Amino acid sequence: MSALLPTYLRHDIELVAGNGSFVQDKAGKNYLDFVMGIAVCNTGHRHPHVEQALQEQLQKLWHTSNLFMSSKQERVAAMLTENSHLSHVFFCNSGTEANEGAFKLIRKWTQKKEILTFSQSFHGRTFAMMGATGQDKIKAGFGEMVPDFKHLTFNDFDSLEMITNQTAAVWLEVIQGEGGVIVAENAWLEALMEKARQYDVKVVIDEVQTGIGRTGSRFAFEQTPLKPDIITVAKGLGSGFPVGAIITTPEATAVFTPGTHGSTFGGNPLAMAAAEATLDVLLNEQQMKQVQQKGLYLMQQLKQLPETMVVDVRGRGLMIGIEFHEPVSSLITALQQAGMLVVSAGPNVIRLLPSLCVTEQELDLAVGKIKTVCQQEVMM
Ligand SMILES: Cc1ncc(COP(=O)(O)O)c(C=O)c1O
């Protein structure tokens, strides 16, 4: 019997080694990994530059707390804010924690209570973030939620009428990941931004899944008309080492003053070593161009899947969803048997989240496996 609380429905595969786009299970079977720890290992598994940075830090110092100065934190913060209107960073350890901190920041900053989030959104599982999340299944059984959050319909112009001078913030993912890889339309985001400006409403973008190059720009909002007051990041920031961050504007320095927020582990030297090396690898124009090109190539290939099975192929950069007419659990199992790992996003969507350093051959290999498995399914 397992001593773990059964909060996860796990696949019967234990992964023990990884390199680049591939992982290996206990029995020695290799898999092409298009899960990447759910959009976490954006540099692939054990990228040599990140591995070296972690090894060097391991031999120096593991933890100091935030009682002391950290030039590594300063450097990573500068890398995250360079060339944008965002200027200040708070480091924490996960996406939920970054969002929870952003919630505190908004409350104190605006002194208002109404926060508008969206149906099918996902922002985490703490009490406040369950409230923020627009999916009933996440809240089921936990009673009354934090009352600040109201959910609007994503990509719906009429629902923007809910933005008023009572609103503290409008809070969204530019591409809803867990909700099914739903891309926000730029015309709608423009209208949203206009309303937010009209009523002096803060804009918070949850970039936990879309950030750190996943969609072909450093942050997904850079490809939209949005000008956020806060973004939250995590997943891809540490290449697999747990780290999260709130990134915000100069005005927030008057809100998050000494003693208002904190974290023992946030910005830990190992996390910062992983983050600095990750950003070294990913946050440059050439990488972002390649992510865009690889994403377009993958999308084109996937659009050739049979229409009898596939409803839609969508996404941006290397965050791609394939929506099927039927539930995808049997396809996911068949792909595992064929040596490829993918993750669902809702019952009918397969989400592809490869390493951003994936090669064209690996993309071809993935498409080949997906096509074969689809053909097998048709014949069954
Ligand atoms: C958009 C988004 N926000 C927040 C979270 C929660 O992040 P974490 O699991 O690191 O707490 C996730 C996780 O999937 C996410 O996709």
UniProtKB/TrEMBL annotation:
<keyword id="KW-0808">Transferase</keyword>
<keyword id="KW-0963">Cytoplasm</keyword>
<keyword id="KW-0055">Arginine biosynthesis</keyword>
<feature type="binding site">
    <location>
        <position position="263"/>
    </location>
    <ligand>
        <name>N(2)-acetyl-L-ornithine</name>
    </ligand>
</feature>
<dbReference type="GO" id="GO:0005737">
    <property type="term" value="C:cytoplasm"/>
</dbReference>
<dbReference type="InterPro" id="IPR049704">
    <property type="entry name" value="Aminotrans_3_PPA_site"/>
</dbReference>
<feature type="binding site">
    <location>
        <position position="122"/>
    </location>
    <ligand>
        <name>pyridoxal 5'-phosphate</name>
    </ligand>
</feature>
<feature type="binding site">
    <location>
        <begin position="95"/>
        <end position="96"/>
    </location>
    <ligand>
        <name>pyridoxal 5'-phosphate</name>
    </ligand>
</feature>
<keyword id="KW-0663">Pyridoxal phosphate</keyword>
<dbReference type="GO" id="GO:0042802">
    <property type="term" value="F:identical protein binding"/>
</dbReference>
<feature type="binding site">
    <location>
        <begin position="206"/>
        <end position="209"/>
    </location>
    <ligand>
        <name>pyridoxal 5'-phosphate</name>
    </ligand>
</feature>
<comment type="pathway">
    <text>Amino-acid biosynthesis; L-arginine biosynthesis; N(2)-acetyl-L-ornithine from L-glutamate: step 4/4.</text>
</comment>
<comment type="similarity">
    <text>Belongs to the class-III pyridoxal-phosphate-dependent aminotransferase family. ArgD subfamily.</text>
</comment>
<dbReference type="Pfam" id="PF00202">
    <property type="entry name" value="Aminotran_3"/>
</dbReference>
<dbReference type="InterPro" id="IPR050103">
    <property type="entry name" value="Class-III_PLP-dep_AT"/>
</dbReference>
<feature type="binding site">
    <location>
        <position position="264"/>
    </location>
    <ligand>
        <name>pyridoxal 5'-phosphate</name>
    </ligand>
</feature>
<dbReference type="InterPro" id="IPR015424">
    <property type="entry name" value="PyrdxlP-dep_Trfase"/>
</dbReference>
<dbReference type="InterPro" id="IPR015421">
    <property type="entry name" value="PyrdxlP-dep_Trfase_major"/>
</dbReference>
<dbReference type="GO" id="GO:0030170">
    <property type="term" value="F:pyridoxal phosphate binding"/>
</dbReference>
<dbReference type="GO" id="GO:0006526">
    <property type="term" value="P:L-arginine biosynthetic process"/>
</dbReference>
<protein>
    <recommendedName>
        <fullName>Acetylornithine aminotransferase</fullName>
        <ecNumber>2.6.1.11</ecNumber>
    </recommendedName>
</protein>
<dbReference type="InterPro" id="IPR015422">
    <property type="entry name" value="PyrdxlP-dep_Trfase_small"/>
</dbReference>
<dbReference type="InterPro" id="IPR004636">
    <property type="entry name" value="AcOrn/SuccOrn_fam"/>
</dbReference>
<keyword id="KW-0032">Aminotransferase</keyword>
<dbReference type="InterPro" id="IPR005814">
    <property type="entry name" value="Aminotrans_3"/>
</dbReference>
<comment type="subunit">
    <text>Homodimer.</text>
</comment>
<dbReference type="GO" id="GO:0003992">
    <property type="term" value="F:N2-acetyl-L-ornithine:2-oxoglutarate 5-aminotransferase activity"/>
</dbReference>
<keyword id="KW-0028">Amino-acid biosynthesis</keyword>
<feature type="modified residue" description="N6-(pyridoxal phosphate)lysine">
    <location>
        <position position="235"/>
    </location>
</feature>
<feature type="binding site">
    <location>
        <position position="125"/>
    </location>
    <ligand>
        <name>N(2)-acetyl-L-ornithine</name>
    </ligand>
</feature>
